[in-house]
Design brief:
single chain, 14 helices, about 15% strand, alpha/beta, 2 domains
Length: about 425
């Protein structure tokens, strides 16, 4: 048993540090092992310590296999402590990026929020405890005709009378699975506790529903927010959008395409421009025009499960559904977050997307590339995800402060011209 546990320890540790892009069907298991190895490193240290204590206290180390297993586990524990510390160091990565924007000086002093300045052990010691005091959830509000057109609203019970900024969360799951109850819960609870109204949506999924049904539903939800969020204390004039993986694709696509009315069937007249966007580990180019995935192509999967026709038959549509195709001066402020070791959405694609944004966008673009970080690292509390939640809150408050300042300036300008 001790040798078996040592093998598990080695596998969990190695998967964090080794980036493998071409292992076929083993990609998903490798991602899963690396994900849990990185984000629960402190937990592995606990069970490994217990295993060693039991072995030394009640067993023996006479065999060579046991001695090698002990040495391997001790090495892994040292590396896992470093993994844990690397997660804590994510805060310094975000801080360095934000110093370039002078974000601290731009935050509104009138906003009723409390920023997280450090990774809170109260969170990552309870990784799956999501609820926050004073936050209420309103479930399964209807925003469209399809059975999947439902949304949840997270807000503070004692919210002030003034309208609150709004965050729209779009879940991931490869455009074919996923649910609004599963993702971004640490982020939404933190924001809701500090003066935001957060909206998490379900949308139509493949293969029963093909593109552009997914993006149409995201835009339908945006339209619903514009028309109804004031009833729940939200400000329809300030909407930020976020999502991870497929949600990163859909959130960035929605943020960059407020002008495509064909994706707004029946509500074409509503302005769906958003004021900020935070995509996590997204897919930004269905066509893979820069060959970032090589032989690890998503083309077959997309053609069979997501798109209405293969790329060869509908290239223009594949290109149109790629956020990279819509980068321009109109892009809202964006915080793009990606891990270097992401097994499912390759970091090279994010780098190309960010470079295009920095070249063409007129609003701020912040890119956080987190070392040795996997896909879906923000699903539950960990040192890395807690720092990420704090960074997103700070970025969104910065965007909202700039919006309020612009509104005030416009009011003063109108008053001076009367």
């Amino acid at each position: 048993m001790f040798v078996f546990l040592s093998v598990i320890s080695v596998l969990l540790t190695a998967a964090v540090y080794i980036r493998i892009k071409r292992i076929g069907w083993l990609m998903l298991p490798w991602f899963f092992i690396a994900w849990l190895g990185a984000e629960l490193a402190w937990f592995h240290l606990i069970w490994e310590s217990i295993a060693i204590a039991l072995k030394l206290g009640f067993g023996s180390l006479e065999s060579s296999a046991d001695k090698i297993a002990l040495a391997a586990m001790l090495v892994c524990m040292a590396l896992q402590w470093k993994i844990h510390r690397d997660g804590q160091a994510a805060g310094s990565i975000y801080a360095a990026l934000f110093r370039q924007l002078d974000i601290g000086d731009a935050l509104s002093p009138d906003r009723p929020f409390q920023l997280l300045d450090a990774s809170q052990s109260r969170d990552w010691l309870h990784p799956f405890r999501m609820r926050r005091p004073g936050v209420e959830k309103i479930s399964d509000v209807v925003y469209g005709d399809h059975a999947r057109n439902r949304l949840d609203i997270y807000r503070a019970r004692n919210a002030a009378n003034s309208p609150s900024p709004v965050l729209l969360q779009v879940h991931g799951g490869g455009w074919v699975i996923g649910d609004k109850k599963e993702q971004a819960l640490p982020l939404m609870h933190q924001l809701a506790q500090n003066g935001w109204v957060c909206v998490a949506i379900n949308y139509r999924l493949g293969p029963q529903n093909r593109m552009p049904a997914h993006i149409e539903d995201v835009k339908k939800a945006l339209a619903w927010i514009k028309q109804h969020i004031a009833e729940y204390g939200g400000d329809p004039e300030f909407i930020a959008i976020t999502g991870g993986s497929a949600g990163g694709h859909l959130s960035s696509l929605a943020a960059l395409t407020p002008h495509i009315k064909a994706w707004q069937p029946g509500f074409e007249e509503i302005d769906l421009a958003v004021q900020a966007c935070v995509p996590f580990y997204g897919i930004f180019d269905f066509t893979d025009r820069h060959n970032t995935r090589g032989k690890v192509s998503m083309e077959k999967f997309l053609g069979q499960q997501v798109m209405p026709a293969p790329k060869a038959e509908a290239y223009d549509l594949w290109e149109q559904l790629s956020p990279l195709s819509h980068v321009g001066p109109h892009a809202p402020p964006m915080l793009v977050i990606h891990g270097t070791h992401d097994s499912l959405a390759f970091v090279e694609e994010a780098r190309i997307f960010v470079e295009a944004l920095r070249t063409n966008a007129s609003n701020p673009v912040v890119y956080a590339e987190l070392p040795n970080t996997q896909h879906a690292f923000d699903i539950f509390h960990s040192p890395r995800s807690t720092h990420t939640v704090a960074a997103i809150q700070r970025f969104l408050e910065y965007c909202y402060a700039n919006y309020l300042a612009a509104v005030q300036q416009e009011v003063q300008l109108k008053a001076s011209t009367r």
